[in-house]
Design brief:
The chain has 326 residues and is α+β, with helices and mostly antiparallel strands. It is 55% helix and 16% strand.
Length: 326
């Protein structure tokens, strides 16, 4: 483990308007086999011809030993430095922080939902590959954040008002940006990680998106990630990674194969799709408005796919959580 840290001040999560007294302490997660670093990820960004020379990843995974305030009360596991105001005796955050232990706990709490979605056998096979889980979680966040910075970077989009229309948040564009980061992140993982480590990052992302969505729908009647999981499902089903079929008489996701070469191929197709259908058209557009229109058309074409949407919804609302999986 790395050196200790402690931050005391006020913090707010993105979903809240008010900051409250909060504190965080722990140790940086460093020097672990297979663990990515800011410098390694940013060096890969600089090498990519699509990087526009501005935004870079500023992220630190941590083993948190003490949380108070919104660090403790909210489910968010990514703590953003821009939302933290230090007290007089505290240092400001130098980077966004990934709370890997909180994420590990949430992963365990979602296992019944994952078993409902994929069946016990498939979830067991996935879990068996996600080791060590804290490194997998950290690497997945590095890949996702870096994916935001290829092409027109997400920070520039926010500054230029890309995600607002008439003063209101254009949620379809927000969700598309998150999908773009996932898909581009899969391509970056192929370049920066060993094949098995890259697959771990991919499988964790897929399980995270679908597991959080089902937990939200079944437990709270909300979609925490909006349409991001559905957009990911649409792509993965289109390329043949998964299909909807019965498990114990209830609709579920059936993965075609977890064979290394097959999964790596799907990851490569993911990155190619992101470049051809999202990142490339955005960068080539004559204006951000044209880019937004292209993005909205991408989302609309998939959301309006009634058969795909119905299949996804049927799985998310299936009764497998009560009856168990195969």
């Amino acid at each position: 483990m790395g050196e200790r840290f402690e931050y005391v001040g006020t913090y707010r999560v993105q979903s809240r308007r008010t900051a409250v007294p909060s504190s965080l302490a722990g140790m940086w997660l460093t020097d672990r086999p297979g663990l990515l670093t800011e410098s390694k990820v940013n060096a890969e960004l600089v090498r990519d011809s699509r990087w526009q020379g501005r935004a870079q990843v500023a992220l630190q995974p941590a083993i948190v030993t003490q949380r108070a305030g919104q660090f403790a009360s909210e489910r968010d596991i990514l703590y953003k430095k821009s939302f933290f105001s230090p007290a007089a005796a505290s240092s400001p955050m130098q980077a966004d922080i990934v709370d890997v232990q909180k994420s590990e706990g949430l992963w365990s709490s979602r296992l019944p939902h994952l078993q409902a979605l994929f069946g016990h056998a498939t979830v067991g096979a996935i879990e068996g590959r996600l080791a060590p889980l804290d490194v997998v979680i950290a690497n997945e966040y590095f890949m996702h954040e870096a994916g935001h910075f290829l092409g027109i970077d997400v920070l520039g989009k926010y500054v230029k008002g890309y995600f607002t229309v008439g003063g209101k948040t254009a949620w379809p564009l927000v969700y598309l940006e998150e999908l773009r980061a996932d898909l581009e992140g899969f391509g970056l993982a192929r370049r920066l990680l060993t094949p098995e480590q890259a697959i771990c990052s991919f499988l964790y992302t897929v399980a995270l998106r679908f597991g959080v969505h089902r937990a939200g729908v079944r437990e709270e009647g909300i979609a925490p990630y909006g349409t991001i999981p559905y957009l990911l499902f649409h792509f993965l089903s289109t390329v043949g990674f998964l299909r909807v079929a019965p498990i114990n008489g209830c609709p579920a996701f059936v993965i075609k194969s977890l064979d290394t070469d097959f999964v790596l191929s799907v990851m490569e197709q993911s990155a190619a799709h992101a470049q051809e259908q999202i990142t490339g058209p955005e960068s080539a557009a004559e204006s951000l408005l044209d880019a937004a229109i292209a993005g909205a058309n991408y989302v609309r074409s998939r959301v309006s796919d009634g058969a795909s949407a119905a299949a996804f919804d049927a799985v998310m609302r299936s009764g497998n959580a009560v009856r168990g999986g195969a």
